[in-house]
Amino acid sequence: MRAERQRQKRAHSRRCERARQEPNPDPLVELHRKGELENSAMKTLKDAFHHTLKDIYYAENALVKALPKAAKAAGHKDLKKAFEDHLAETKEQIKILDKVFKSIGEKPEGEKCDAIEGLIKETEGLIDEAEGVALEVMLVGAAQAIEHYEIARYGTLREWAKILGEDQAHDMLSQILDMEKAANAKLTALAVHELNEPA
Ligand SMILES: [Fe+2]
Ligand SMILES: [Fe+2]
Description:
Blueprint: H1 2-21, H2 27-33, H3 45-73, H4 77-103, H5 114-129, H6 132-163, H7 167-195
Helix pairs in contact: 3-4, 3-5, 3-6, 4-7, 5-6, 6-7
């Protein structure tokens, strides 16, 4: 048994050694190996803050494009209105984020956020695949997943802003966090009181 474990361990380290020597098709992995990412790698809390701010800026802009599709797909009038209202709020949030960037001396820009891309893709998928009650309740569920994602991000960002002494940014990010929480609460009320009924 012990000999078998040692054999597996030796095979594993041989595989790792081969992987280290073989050229990797991913250019980023190659760059990293050569140490060329050293200067661009994120190292500080400030780097993490700036990166995550760009990530949520990308996410909000992606949502401006995605929310009209959700509003169009919703059959229940209150759900349709919830999406339309949140579209207006999302545009407002982008303006607030512009001010957050300004307050920290950075220009507003987005960086591709894989998480929001995935959440939006999932929502678009169910618009294609579901109908009737299933579509309505799943749309609310998908929208809540997005709100929870945003709540997580803004919660993190505002705490980082506070630690970094960016008080204005902290206040503005808290303002957006409250908007996201209110949007989520509205969706919960809609689901519980209007949409979730036994089939
Ligand atoms: Fe948002
Ligand atoms: Fe939101």
